[in-house]
Amino acid sequence: MQVGIITVSDRASEGVYEDLGGPALKKAAEGYGWTVAAEAIVPDDLQRIQGAVRSFSAQGCALILTTGGTGIAERDVTPEAIRGIMRVEIPGFGELMRMKSLELTPNAILSRSLAAVVERSLVIALPGKPQGAVDCLGFVLGAIPHTVKLAQRVPTSC
Question: Where does the MoaB/Mog domain start and stop, copy by copy (predicted)?
Fold first, then answer.
């Protein structure tokens, strides 16, 4: 599976600090046997996030993972960016990520992580903390292959 990884962070995009979330997701994705075909670091900006998602989808990334911008700070706009270009949101992904994360930290209730279909790609917005992003990806891992097939309009048995 071709995967794109987008780190959403003002400071990382400006080089103020090293991106740790993107590399953590890349390692996890490769561990699942996926090919990371595209990577980007963008600021917390609706249009830049949307542009990166659309670009990765056009490049053939069946799965696009974002890390960052899913909290409640003023600049956290990743969910709004994805909702602005999605065909359909898949609420169960966000619900499961929050439910399982709540077992690890009480702050999980603040997360606005989500999943949606954009064009023919499954987009999953994950937390900005590297371990949180990797954990949340693992929580929804079982549903990803089937969801990607549906997003890409591949006939399935259900």
Answer: 4-147
